[in-house]
Design goal:
The complex is a heterodimer of chains A (49) and B (539). Helices cover 71% and strands 0% of the residues of chain A. Chain A has 49 residues and is mainly α. By secondary structure, chain B is mainly alpha-helical. Helices cover 67% and strands 1% of the residues of chain B. Chain B contains 18 helices and 2 strands. Chain B starts with a helix and ends with a helix. The chains are: A mainly alpha (49), B mainly alpha (539).
Protein backbone atom coordinates (compact mmCIF):
# COMPACT_ATOMS: atom_id res chain seq x y z
CA UNK A 1 0.00 0.00 0.00
CA UNK A 2 1.29 3.43 -0.89
CA UNK A 3 2.48 5.47 2.04
CA UNK A 4 0.01 8.21 1.12
CA UNK A 5 -2.79 5.80 2.08
CA UNK A 6 -1.60 5.54 5.68
CA UNK A 7 -3.72 7.30 8.31
CA UNK A 8 -2.35 10.61 9.42
CA UNK A 9 -0.95 10.91 12.94
CA UNK A 10 -3.68 10.77 15.56
CA UNK A 11 -5.52 13.96 16.30
CA UNK A 12 -4.82 16.03 19.36
CA UNK A 13 -5.40 14.17 22.58
CA UNK A 14 -9.01 14.07 23.72
CA UNK A 15 -8.49 16.41 26.66
CA UNK A 16 -7.02 19.10 24.43
CA UNK A 17 -9.81 18.77 21.95
CA UNK A 18 -12.48 18.85 24.63
CA UNK A 19 -10.91 22.03 25.96
CA UNK A 20 -10.99 23.66 22.53
CA UNK A 21 -14.60 22.56 21.98
CA UNK A 22 -15.62 23.98 25.36
CA UNK A 23 -13.83 27.26 24.70
CA UNK A 24 -15.37 27.76 21.26
CA UNK A 25 -18.83 26.88 22.62
CA UNK A 26 -18.49 29.41 25.44
CA UNK A 27 -17.29 32.16 23.11
CA UNK A 28 -20.14 31.65 20.63
CA UNK A 29 -22.70 31.38 23.45
CA UNK A 30 -21.36 34.62 24.93
CA UNK A 31 -21.80 36.33 21.55
CA UNK A 32 -25.42 35.09 21.33
CA UNK A 33 -26.26 36.31 24.84
CA UNK A 34 -24.48 39.63 24.25
CA UNK A 35 -26.52 40.18 21.09
CA UNK A 36 -29.78 39.30 22.82
CA UNK A 37 -29.36 41.36 25.99
CA UNK A 38 -27.36 44.07 24.22
CA UNK A 39 -30.15 44.55 21.78
CA UNK A 40 -32.82 44.84 24.45
CA UNK A 41 -30.58 47.20 26.46
CA UNK A 42 -30.12 49.36 23.38
CA UNK A 43 -33.87 49.52 22.84
CA UNK A 44 -34.50 50.30 26.49
CA UNK A 45 -31.96 53.12 26.30
CA UNK A 46 -33.63 54.48 23.18
CA UNK A 47 -37.07 54.22 24.78
CA UNK A 48 -36.02 56.13 27.89
CA UNK A 49 -33.79 58.89 26.47
CA UNK B 1 -1.80 -4.95 5.51
CA UNK B 2 -2.31 -2.07 7.90
CA UNK B 3 -5.92 -1.21 8.58
CA UNK B 4 -6.94 1.92 6.73
CA UNK B 5 -9.90 4.09 7.62
CA UNK B 6 -11.59 2.69 4.55
CA UNK B 7 -11.40 -0.91 5.68
CA UNK B 8 -12.23 0.15 9.20
CA UNK B 9 -15.36 1.80 7.89
CA UNK B 10 -16.27 -1.35 5.99
CA UNK B 11 -15.88 -3.36 9.15
CA UNK B 12 -18.22 -0.93 10.87
CA UNK B 13 -20.75 -1.30 8.12
CA UNK B 14 -20.75 -5.06 8.51
CA UNK B 15 -21.26 -4.89 12.28
CA UNK B 16 -23.43 -1.82 12.20
CA UNK B 17 -26.29 -3.34 14.15
CA UNK B 18 -24.01 -4.12 17.08
CA UNK B 19 -23.47 -0.46 17.92
CA UNK B 20 -26.86 1.01 17.26
CA UNK B 21 -29.45 1.64 19.97
CA UNK B 22 -32.82 0.13 19.16
CA UNK B 23 -36.46 1.11 19.49
CA UNK B 24 -37.76 4.50 20.58
CA UNK B 25 -34.65 5.20 22.67
CA UNK B 26 -32.60 5.43 19.50
CA UNK B 27 -34.61 8.48 18.47
CA UNK B 28 -35.62 10.14 21.73
CA UNK B 29 -32.14 9.96 23.22
CA UNK B 30 -30.39 10.25 19.86
CA UNK B 31 -26.89 11.67 19.89
CA UNK B 32 -25.71 10.21 16.58
CA UNK B 33 -25.50 12.94 13.97
CA UNK B 34 -27.02 10.73 11.29
CA UNK B 35 -30.06 9.85 13.43
CA UNK B 36 -30.59 13.48 14.38
CA UNK B 37 -30.14 14.52 10.76
CA UNK B 38 -32.77 11.99 9.72
CA UNK B 39 -35.19 13.27 12.37
CA UNK B 40 -34.68 16.85 11.19
CA UNK B 41 -35.35 15.84 7.59
CA UNK B 42 -38.48 13.85 8.45
CA UNK B 43 -39.76 16.71 10.60
CA UNK B 44 -39.05 19.17 7.82
CA UNK B 45 -40.90 16.98 5.32
CA UNK B 46 -43.99 16.89 7.57
CA UNK B 47 -43.85 20.68 7.95
CA UNK B 48 -43.33 21.10 4.19
CA UNK B 49 -46.62 19.33 3.55
CA UNK B 50 -48.36 21.17 6.40
CA UNK B 51 -47.26 24.55 5.03
CA UNK B 52 -48.06 23.26 1.55
CA UNK B 53 -51.60 22.40 2.63
CA UNK B 54 -52.05 26.00 3.82
CA UNK B 55 -50.75 27.17 0.42
CA UNK B 56 -53.23 24.91 -1.38
CA UNK B 57 -56.06 26.48 0.60
CA UNK B 58 -54.76 29.96 -0.25
CA UNK B 59 -54.64 29.10 -3.96
CA UNK B 60 -58.06 27.43 -3.80
CA UNK B 61 -59.55 30.60 -2.33
CA UNK B 62 -57.82 32.73 -4.98
CA UNK B 63 -58.93 30.45 -7.82
CA UNK B 64 -61.86 32.81 -8.49
CA UNK B 65 -62.73 36.34 -7.35
CA UNK B 66 -65.05 36.50 -4.34
CA UNK B 67 -64.96 34.47 -1.15
CA UNK B 68 -65.67 30.77 -1.70
CA UNK B 69 -63.86 28.60 0.81
CA UNK B 70 -62.59 30.56 3.81
CA UNK B 71 -63.45 33.91 5.34
CA UNK B 72 -61.02 36.81 5.32
CA UNK B 73 -59.78 36.13 8.86
CA UNK B 74 -58.94 32.51 8.16
CA UNK B 75 -57.26 33.57 4.90
CA UNK B 76 -55.00 35.95 6.84
CA UNK B 77 -54.18 33.16 9.27
CA UNK B 78 -53.39 30.85 6.35
CA UNK B 79 -50.90 33.27 4.77
CA UNK B 80 -49.29 33.95 8.17
CA UNK B 81 -49.01 30.30 9.12
CA UNK B 82 -47.84 29.28 5.64
CA UNK B 83 -44.91 31.69 5.95
CA UNK B 84 -44.00 30.72 9.50
CA UNK B 85 -44.27 26.97 8.90
CA UNK B 86 -42.34 27.00 5.63
CA UNK B 87 -39.52 29.22 6.90
CA UNK B 88 -39.05 27.96 10.44
CA UNK B 89 -40.51 24.47 10.10
CA UNK B 90 -39.62 23.27 6.62
CA UNK B 91 -36.62 25.07 5.13
CA UNK B 92 -34.45 25.79 8.18
CA UNK B 93 -34.81 22.32 9.76
CA UNK B 94 -34.15 20.70 6.37
CA UNK B 95 -30.84 22.55 6.15
CA UNK B 96 -29.96 21.62 9.73
CA UNK B 97 -30.82 18.01 8.87
CA UNK B 98 -28.52 18.06 5.86
CA UNK B 99 -25.84 19.78 7.96
CA UNK B 100 -26.11 17.08 10.61
CA UNK B 101 -25.84 14.31 8.09
CA UNK B 102 -23.13 15.75 5.91
CA UNK B 103 -20.82 18.11 7.82
CA UNK B 104 -19.18 15.46 10.06
CA UNK B 105 -18.67 13.01 7.21
CA UNK B 106 -17.45 15.76 4.87
CA UNK B 107 -14.80 17.04 7.27
CA UNK B 108 -13.75 13.63 8.56
CA UNK B 109 -15.22 14.04 12.07
CA UNK B 110 -16.78 11.14 13.98
CA UNK B 111 -19.84 13.20 14.99
CA UNK B 112 -20.98 16.72 15.81
CA UNK B 113 -18.98 18.34 18.60
CA UNK B 114 -21.93 18.68 20.98
CA UNK B 115 -24.16 15.63 20.47
CA UNK B 116 -26.47 16.13 23.48
CA UNK B 117 -27.01 19.75 22.55
CA UNK B 118 -27.80 18.47 19.08
CA UNK B 119 -30.51 16.25 20.53
CA UNK B 120 -31.96 19.18 22.48
CA UNK B 121 -31.98 21.51 19.48
CA UNK B 122 -33.98 18.98 17.50
CA UNK B 123 -36.47 18.04 20.20
CA UNK B 124 -37.35 21.67 20.92
CA UNK B 125 -38.78 21.94 17.41
CA UNK B 126 -41.76 19.53 17.58
CA UNK B 127 -42.95 21.26 20.76
CA UNK B 128 -42.59 24.68 19.14
CA UNK B 129 -44.68 23.62 16.18
CA UNK B 130 -47.32 21.80 18.20
CA UNK B 131 -47.70 25.06 20.12
CA UNK B 132 -47.81 27.17 16.97
CA UNK B 133 -50.20 24.91 15.07
CA UNK B 134 -52.50 24.44 18.06
CA UNK B 135 -53.12 28.19 17.93
CA UNK B 136 -55.72 27.34 15.25
CA UNK B 137 -57.84 25.95 18.10
CA UNK B 138 -57.81 28.91 20.50
CA UNK B 139 -60.36 31.78 20.55
CA UNK B 140 -59.50 34.24 17.78
CA UNK B 141 -57.79 31.47 15.79
CA UNK B 142 -54.20 31.39 14.57
CA UNK B 143 -51.97 34.49 14.19
CA UNK B 144 -53.11 36.52 11.19
CA UNK B 145 -50.85 39.57 11.12
CA UNK B 146 -48.36 38.13 8.63
CA UNK B 147 -45.17 36.20 9.39
CA UNK B 148 -43.45 39.57 9.85
CA UNK B 149 -45.56 40.20 13.00
CA UNK B 150 -45.72 43.98 12.50
CA UNK B 151 -47.21 45.92 15.39
CA UNK B 152 -49.74 47.33 16.05
CA UNK B 153 -51.67 44.76 13.96
CA UNK B 154 -50.08 41.72 15.49
CA UNK B 155 -50.71 43.03 19.03
CA UNK B 156 -54.44 42.94 18.37
CA UNK B 157 -54.69 39.16 18.30
CA UNK B 158 -56.01 37.17 21.21
CA UNK B 159 -54.83 33.96 22.79
CA UNK B 160 -52.70 32.99 19.81
CA UNK B 161 -50.31 35.92 20.32
CA UNK B 162 -48.33 34.58 23.32
CA UNK B 163 -48.33 31.14 21.69
CA UNK B 164 -46.73 32.67 18.59
CA UNK B 165 -44.12 34.52 20.63
CA UNK B 166 -43.22 31.45 22.68
CA UNK B 167 -43.07 29.27 19.57
CA UNK B 168 -40.78 31.80 17.84
CA UNK B 169 -38.53 31.81 20.90
CA UNK B 170 -38.28 28.03 20.87
CA UNK B 171 -37.52 27.92 17.15
CA UNK B 172 -34.90 30.61 17.67
CA UNK B 173 -33.27 28.72 20.53
CA UNK B 174 -33.24 25.57 18.41
CA UNK B 175 -31.60 27.40 15.50
CA UNK B 176 -29.01 29.08 17.73
CA UNK B 177 -28.06 25.80 19.40
CA UNK B 178 -27.77 24.17 15.99
CA UNK B 179 -25.58 27.01 14.73
CA UNK B 180 -23.31 26.86 17.80
CA UNK B 181 -22.91 23.14 17.21
CA UNK B 182 -22.00 23.62 13.54
CA UNK B 183 -19.43 26.35 14.32
CA UNK B 184 -17.82 24.34 17.11
CA UNK B 185 -17.74 21.19 14.98
CA UNK B 186 -16.17 22.84 11.95
CA UNK B 187 -13.68 24.82 14.02
CA UNK B 188 -12.50 21.90 16.13
CA UNK B 189 -13.27 18.52 14.59
CA UNK B 190 -11.86 18.76 11.08
CA UNK B 191 -9.64 15.84 10.26
CA UNK B 192 -5.90 16.58 10.17
CA UNK B 193 -5.17 17.92 6.71
CA UNK B 194 -8.70 19.25 6.19
CA UNK B 195 -7.69 22.91 6.11
CA UNK B 196 -10.35 25.60 5.80
CA UNK B 197 -9.70 26.09 2.10
CA UNK B 198 -9.99 22.35 1.45
CA UNK B 199 -13.44 22.11 2.98
CA UNK B 200 -16.33 21.28 0.68
CA UNK B 201 -18.45 24.28 -0.30
CA UNK B 202 -21.45 22.89 1.59
CA UNK B 203 -19.41 23.03 4.80
CA UNK B 204 -18.20 26.54 4.02
CA UNK B 205 -21.68 27.86 3.28
CA UNK B 206 -22.99 26.28 6.47
CA UNK B 207 -20.18 27.81 8.54
CA UNK B 208 -21.07 31.25 7.20
CA UNK B 209 -24.78 30.54 7.67
CA UNK B 210 -24.11 29.63 11.30
CA UNK B 211 -22.47 32.99 11.95
CA UNK B 212 -25.50 34.67 10.40
CA UNK B 213 -27.78 32.64 12.69
CA UNK B 214 -25.77 33.48 15.77
CA UNK B 215 -25.85 37.17 14.87
CA UNK B 216 -29.50 37.60 13.94
CA UNK B 217 -31.63 35.06 15.81
CA UNK B 218 -31.02 36.88 19.13
CA UNK B 219 -32.22 40.06 17.43
CA UNK B 220 -35.48 38.35 16.45
CA UNK B 221 -35.79 37.00 19.99
CA UNK B 222 -35.23 40.50 21.38
CA UNK B 223 -37.82 41.98 19.01
CA UNK B 224 -40.54 39.46 19.88
CA UNK B 225 -39.72 39.83 23.60
CA UNK B 226 -40.40 43.53 23.23
CA UNK B 227 -43.65 42.76 21.42
CA UNK B 228 -44.58 40.54 24.35
CA UNK B 229 -43.85 43.23 26.93
CA UNK B 230 -45.76 45.80 24.85
CA UNK B 231 -48.75 43.46 24.86
CA UNK B 232 -48.72 42.25 28.45
CA UNK B 233 -46.56 44.52 30.59
CA UNK B 234 -47.50 48.01 29.47
CA UNK B 235 -44.24 48.95 27.72
CA UNK B 236 -44.35 51.11 24.61
CA UNK B 237 -41.43 50.02 22.49
CA UNK B 238 -43.57 49.98 19.37
CA UNK B 239 -46.69 51.73 20.63
CA UNK B 240 -46.93 55.25 19.21
CA UNK B 241 -49.49 56.27 21.85
CA UNK B 242 -46.91 55.63 24.56
CA UNK B 243 -44.06 57.35 22.71
CA UNK B 244 -42.84 54.23 20.92
CA UNK B 245 -42.27 53.71 17.22
CA UNK B 246 -43.92 50.92 15.22
CA UNK B 247 -41.51 51.51 12.34
CA UNK B 248 -38.66 50.66 14.70
CA UNK B 249 -40.04 47.11 14.82
CA UNK B 250 -39.75 46.91 11.06
CA UNK B 251 -36.12 48.01 11.22
CA UNK B 252 -35.35 45.39 13.87
CA UNK B 253 -37.36 42.67 12.18
CA UNK B 254 -35.68 43.15 8.83
CA UNK B 255 -32.25 43.39 10.42
CA UNK B 256 -33.05 39.77 11.26
CA UNK B 257 -35.22 39.11 8.22
CA UNK B 258 -32.83 39.86 5.41
CA UNK B 259 -29.93 37.75 6.72
CA UNK B 260 -32.62 35.12 7.36
CA UNK B 261 -33.20 35.00 3.59
CA UNK B 262 -29.53 34.12 3.16
CA UNK B 263 -29.69 31.65 6.03
CA UNK B 264 -32.21 29.81 3.88
CA UNK B 265 -30.25 30.18 0.63
CA UNK B 266 -26.51 29.99 1.37
CA UNK B 267 -26.55 26.24 2.17
CA UNK B 268 -28.35 25.84 -1.17
CA UNK B 269 -25.38 27.52 -2.84
CA UNK B 270 -23.22 24.94 -1.11
CA UNK B 271 -25.30 21.98 -2.28
CA UNK B 272 -25.35 23.23 -5.87
CA UNK B 273 -21.58 23.79 -5.70
CA UNK B 274 -21.24 20.09 -4.84
CA UNK B 275 -23.65 18.78 -7.45
CA UNK B 276 -22.68 20.77 -10.55
CA UNK B 277 -19.00 19.68 -10.50
CA UNK B 278 -20.06 16.06 -9.83
CA UNK B 279 -22.33 15.89 -12.88
CA UNK B 280 -19.98 17.97 -15.04
CA UNK B 281 -17.03 15.68 -14.17
CA UNK B 282 -14.94 18.78 -13.53
CA UNK B 283 -13.63 20.53 -10.44
CA UNK B 284 -15.61 23.55 -9.31
CA UNK B 285 -14.51 26.66 -11.21
CA UNK B 286 -13.13 29.32 -8.83
CA UNK B 287 -13.43 27.55 -5.47
CA UNK B 288 -11.84 30.37 -3.48
CA UNK B 289 -13.89 33.00 -5.29
CA UNK B 290 -17.00 31.02 -4.29
CA UNK B 291 -15.94 31.11 -0.63
CA UNK B 292 -15.26 34.84 -0.71
CA UNK B 293 -18.47 35.51 -2.64
CA UNK B 294 -20.46 33.63 0.01
CA UNK B 295 -18.81 35.63 2.77
CA UNK B 296 -19.44 38.87 0.86
CA UNK B 297 -23.12 38.04 0.41
CA UNK B 298 -23.37 37.28 4.14
CA UNK B 299 -21.71 40.59 5.03
CA UNK B 300 -23.89 42.58 2.62
CA UNK B 301 -27.02 40.90 4.00
CA UNK B 302 -26.53 42.93 7.20
CA UNK B 303 -26.63 46.33 5.51
CA UNK B 304 -29.60 46.07 3.16
CA UNK B 305 -32.53 45.45 5.50
CA UNK B 306 -34.44 48.66 4.76
CA UNK B 307 -35.10 47.66 1.14
CA UNK B 308 -38.05 45.75 2.64
CA UNK B 309 -39.50 49.03 3.89
CA UNK B 310 -38.76 51.69 1.27
CA UNK B 311 -42.30 53.06 1.52
CA UNK B 312 -42.37 53.79 5.27
CA UNK B 313 -40.91 57.26 4.83
CA UNK B 314 -37.14 56.92 5.07
CA UNK B 315 -34.83 59.89 4.38
CA UNK B 316 -33.64 60.08 0.79
CA UNK B 317 -30.04 59.42 1.83
CA UNK B 318 -31.16 56.16 3.49
CA UNK B 319 -33.17 55.17 0.42
CA UNK B 320 -30.12 55.70 -1.78
CA UNK B 321 -27.80 53.82 0.56
CA UNK B 322 -30.06 50.80 0.85
CA UNK B 323 -30.79 50.79 -2.88
CA UNK B 324 -27.11 50.75 -3.86
CA UNK B 325 -26.11 48.33 -1.09
CA UNK B 326 -28.82 45.95 -2.30
CA UNK B 327 -27.67 46.21 -5.90
CA UNK B 328 -24.15 45.44 -4.72
CA UNK B 329 -25.29 41.92 -3.75
CA UNK B 330 -25.63 41.21 -7.47
CA UNK B 331 -21.81 41.27 -7.74
CA UNK B 332 -20.91 38.26 -5.54
CA UNK B 333 -24.09 36.51 -6.67
CA UNK B 334 -23.02 37.08 -10.27
CA UNK B 335 -19.62 35.58 -9.43
CA UNK B 336 -21.38 32.46 -8.21
CA UNK B 337 -23.68 32.11 -11.20
CA UNK B 338 -20.70 32.66 -13.51
CA UNK B 339 -18.62 30.05 -11.69
CA UNK B 340 -21.38 27.42 -11.76
CA UNK B 341 -21.81 28.05 -15.48
CA UNK B 342 -18.05 27.96 -16.07
CA UNK B 343 -17.88 24.67 -14.17
CA UNK B 344 -20.29 23.16 -16.70
CA UNK B 345 -18.41 24.66 -19.65
CA UNK B 346 -16.93 21.79 -21.68
CA UNK B 347 -17.82 19.42 -18.89
CA UNK B 348 -18.97 15.89 -19.48
CA UNK B 349 -22.53 16.65 -18.44
CA UNK B 350 -25.20 14.15 -17.48
CA UNK B 351 -28.64 15.01 -16.22
CA UNK B 352 -29.59 12.82 -13.31
CA UNK B 353 -32.22 14.19 -10.87
CA UNK B 354 -29.77 16.03 -8.56
CA UNK B 355 -28.27 17.85 -11.55
CA UNK B 356 -31.72 18.63 -12.97
CA UNK B 357 -32.82 20.23 -9.71
CA UNK B 358 -29.47 22.06 -9.43
CA UNK B 359 -29.93 23.47 -12.95
CA UNK B 360 -33.50 24.49 -12.14
CA UNK B 361 -32.06 26.23 -9.09
CA UNK B 362 -29.56 28.05 -11.29
CA UNK B 363 -32.11 29.29 -13.83
CA UNK B 364 -34.97 30.06 -11.46
CA UNK B 365 -32.88 31.61 -8.71
CA UNK B 366 -31.36 33.91 -11.33
CA UNK B 367 -34.85 34.98 -12.41
CA UNK B 368 -35.64 35.67 -8.74
CA UNK B 369 -32.41 37.64 -8.50
CA UNK B 370 -33.36 39.81 -11.47
CA UNK B 371 -36.80 40.61 -10.05
CA UNK B 372 -34.95 41.39 -6.82
CA UNK B 373 -32.89 43.97 -8.68
CA UNK B 374 -36.12 45.52 -9.97
CA UNK B 375 -37.43 45.67 -6.40
CA UNK B 376 -34.16 47.20 -5.21
CA UNK B 377 -34.79 50.32 -7.28
CA UNK B 378 -36.57 52.76 -5.00
CA UNK B 379 -38.86 54.47 -7.52
CA UNK B 380 -39.90 51.12 -9.01
CA UNK B 381 -40.36 49.60 -5.57
CA UNK B 382 -42.86 52.31 -4.70
CA UNK B 383 -45.03 50.69 -7.37
CA UNK B 384 -44.24 47.07 -6.55
CA UNK B 385 -44.42 47.31 -2.73
CA UNK B 386 -46.91 44.84 -1.28
CA UNK B 387 -48.05 43.57 -4.67
CA UNK B 388 -47.98 40.05 -6.06
CA UNK B 389 -44.74 40.98 -7.82
CA UNK B 390 -43.04 40.69 -4.43
CA UNK B 391 -44.76 37.33 -3.82
CA UNK B 392 -43.50 36.07 -7.18
CA UNK B 393 -39.98 37.38 -6.46
CA UNK B 394 -39.47 35.75 -3.10
CA UNK B 395 -41.01 32.47 -4.17
CA UNK B 396 -38.60 32.35 -7.12
CA UNK B 397 -35.79 32.95 -4.67
CA UNK B 398 -36.95 30.68 -1.86
CA UNK B 399 -38.70 27.78 -3.60
CA UNK B 400 -35.98 27.39 -6.20
CA UNK B 401 -33.13 28.68 -3.99
CA UNK B 402 -34.02 26.61 -0.96
CA UNK B 403 -36.62 23.93 -1.68
CA UNK B 404 -35.15 22.84 -5.04
CA UNK B 405 -31.64 22.88 -3.55
CA UNK B 406 -32.81 20.77 -0.59
CA UNK B 407 -34.46 18.28 -2.97
CA UNK B 408 -31.31 18.27 -5.12
CA UNK B 409 -29.21 17.57 -2.01
CA UNK B 410 -31.46 14.72 -0.88
CA UNK B 411 -31.38 13.14 -4.36
CA UNK B 412 -27.60 13.55 -4.42
CA UNK B 413 -26.80 12.08 -1.01
CA UNK B 414 -29.71 9.66 -0.51
CA UNK B 415 -27.78 6.72 -2.07
CA UNK B 416 -24.98 7.41 0.43
CA UNK B 417 -27.40 7.53 3.35
CA UNK B 418 -29.36 4.35 2.62
CA UNK B 419 -27.00 2.45 0.32
CA UNK B 420 -29.69 2.15 -2.33
CA UNK B 421 -30.52 4.01 -5.53
CA UNK B 422 -33.96 5.53 -6.01
CA UNK B 423 -36.27 5.19 -8.99
CA UNK B 424 -34.58 7.53 -11.46
CA UNK B 425 -37.60 7.70 -13.79
CA UNK B 426 -39.97 8.72 -11.01
CA UNK B 427 -37.47 11.28 -9.73
CA UNK B 428 -37.27 12.78 -13.23
CA UNK B 429 -41.07 12.94 -13.30
CA UNK B 430 -40.86 14.72 -9.96
CA UNK B 431 -38.39 17.18 -11.46
CA UNK B 432 -40.30 17.97 -14.65
CA UNK B 433 -43.65 18.36 -12.88
CA UNK B 434 -42.00 20.58 -10.25
CA UNK B 435 -40.07 22.72 -12.71
CA UNK B 436 -42.94 23.25 -15.14
CA UNK B 437 -45.70 23.84 -12.62
CA UNK B 438 -43.50 25.98 -10.37
CA UNK B 439 -43.38 28.42 -13.28
CA UNK B 440 -47.09 28.06 -14.02
CA UNK B 441 -47.72 28.82 -10.35
CA UNK B 442 -45.41 31.77 -9.79
CA UNK B 443 -44.60 33.41 -13.14
CA UNK B 444 -48.13 34.82 -13.66
CA UNK B 445 -47.85 36.43 -10.24
CA UNK B 446 -45.32 38.85 -11.77
CA UNK B 447 -48.05 39.99 -14.19
CA UNK B 448 -50.61 40.24 -11.39
CA UNK B 449 -48.25 42.33 -9.29
CA UNK B 450 -47.31 44.65 -12.15
CA UNK B 451 -51.02 45.11 -12.85
CA UNK B 452 -51.48 46.18 -9.23
CA UNK B 453 -52.90 43.18 -7.38
CA UNK B 454 -52.06 43.55 -3.68
CA UNK B 455 -50.69 40.60 -1.72
CA UNK B 456 -52.36 39.07 1.37
CA UNK B 457 -55.95 39.60 0.16
CA UNK B 458 -58.62 36.87 -0.10
CA UNK B 459 -60.61 38.62 -2.84
CA UNK B 460 -59.60 40.68 -5.85
CA UNK B 461 -60.85 42.69 -8.81
CA UNK B 462 -62.19 40.71 -11.77
CA UNK B 463 -59.37 41.97 -14.01
CA UNK B 464 -56.98 39.66 -12.09
CA UNK B 465 -59.14 36.54 -12.48
CA UNK B 466 -57.45 34.81 -15.42
CA UNK B 467 -53.89 34.80 -14.15
CA UNK B 468 -55.05 33.84 -10.68
CA UNK B 469 -56.78 30.81 -12.11
CA UNK B 470 -53.64 29.83 -14.03
CA UNK B 471 -51.54 30.36 -10.91
CA UNK B 472 -53.88 28.21 -8.81
CA UNK B 473 -53.85 25.37 -11.35
CA UNK B 474 -50.05 25.54 -11.31
CA UNK B 475 -50.16 25.49 -7.52
CA UNK B 476 -52.36 22.40 -7.33
CA UNK B 477 -50.22 20.37 -9.73
CA UNK B 478 -46.98 21.61 -8.14
CA UNK B 479 -48.30 20.73 -4.69
CA UNK B 480 -49.57 17.29 -5.71
CA UNK B 481 -46.36 16.46 -7.56
CA UNK B 482 -44.40 16.97 -4.34
CA UNK B 483 -46.11 13.86 -2.96
CA UNK B 484 -43.84 11.93 -5.31
CA UNK B 485 -40.85 12.98 -3.22
CA UNK B 486 -41.61 11.07 0.02
CA UNK B 487 -42.89 8.15 -2.08
CA UNK B 488 -39.61 7.98 -4.04
CA UNK B 489 -37.62 8.09 -0.79
CA UNK B 490 -39.83 5.45 0.87
CA UNK B 491 -39.56 3.18 -2.16
CA UNK B 492 -35.79 3.67 -2.28
CA UNK B 493 -35.34 2.82 1.40
CA UNK B 494 -37.51 -0.30 1.10
CA UNK B 495 -36.54 -1.75 -2.22
CA UNK B 496 -34.09 0.47 -4.11
CA UNK B 497 -31.29 -1.17 -6.04
CA UNK B 498 -28.19 -1.54 -3.86
CA UNK B 499 -25.35 0.86 -4.60
CA UNK B 500 -22.08 -0.91 -5.30
CA UNK B 501 -18.85 0.66 -4.03
CA UNK B 502 -18.42 3.97 -2.32
CA UNK B 503 -19.46 6.35 -5.09
CA UNK B 504 -23.06 6.52 -6.22
CA UNK B 505 -22.12 9.07 -8.91
CA UNK B 506 -18.92 8.65 -10.85
CA UNK B 507 -18.07 12.36 -10.75
CA UNK B 508 -18.69 12.73 -7.01
CA UNK B 509 -15.77 13.95 -4.92
CA UNK B 510 -15.39 14.48 -1.18
CA UNK B 511 -14.85 12.51 1.99
CA UNK B 512 -18.46 11.31 2.14
CA UNK B 513 -17.79 9.33 -1.04
CA UNK B 514 -14.82 7.60 0.57
CA UNK B 515 -17.17 5.90 3.02
CA UNK B 516 -19.08 2.75 2.12
CA UNK B 517 -22.74 2.97 1.18
CA UNK B 518 -24.78 3.14 3.34
CA UNK B 519 -22.56 5.34 5.47
CA UNK B 520 -21.76 3.37 8.64
CA UNK B 521 -23.51 4.35 11.84
CA UNK B 522 -20.18 5.44 13.31
CA UNK B 523 -17.97 6.95 10.62
CA UNK B 524 -14.45 8.41 10.68
CA UNK B 525 -13.64 6.96 14.09
CA UNK B 526 -10.18 6.81 12.52
CA UNK B 527 -9.41 10.02 10.63
CA UNK B 528 -9.30 9.89 6.84
CA UNK B 529 -5.95 9.75 5.09
CA UNK B 530 -4.26 12.67 3.42
CA UNK B 531 -4.87 10.99 0.05
CA UNK B 532 -8.60 10.78 0.72
CA UNK B 533 -8.74 14.45 1.69
CA UNK B 534 -6.67 15.44 -1.34
CA UNK B 535 -8.99 13.49 -3.69
CA UNK B 536 -11.98 15.36 -2.31
CA UNK B 537 -10.29 18.74 -2.43
CA UNK B 538 -9.43 18.80 -6.14
CA UNK B 539 -10.64 22.33 -6.58
Amino acid sequence: MASSEQPLPARQDDAGRRKRVRRTTLVVTFVVLAFYFGFIAMMLYRATH
Amino acid sequence: MAETPHTEAHAHAEHDHDHKPHGWRRWVFATNHKDIGTMYLVFSCIMFFTGGAFAMMIRAELFKPGLQIVDAGVFNSLTTMHGLVMIFGAIMPAWVGLANWMIPIQIGAPDMALPRLNNLSFWILPFAFVLLLSSWLVPGSAPAGGWTMYPPLTLQFGASFPMLIFAIHMMGISSILGAINVIVTIMNLRAPGMTLLRMPLFVWTWLITSFLLVAVMPVLAGAVTMLLTDHFFGTSFFNAAGGGDPVMFQHIFWFFGHPEVYIMILPGFGVVSEIIPAFSRKPLFGYEAMVYATASIAFLSFIVWAHHMFTVGLPTSALLFFMFATMLIAVPTGVKVFNWTATMWRGSLTFEPPMLFALAFLFLFTIGGFSGLMLAMVPADFQYQDTYFVVAHFHYVLVSGSAFAIIAGVYYWLPKWVGRMYDMTLAKWHFWLSAIFFNVLFFPQHFLGLAGMPRRIPDYAVQFADWNMVSSIGGFVFGLSQLLFPYIIWKCVRSGQRVEGTRAWDGARGLEWELPSPAPYHSWTIPPTEAMIARGAEH
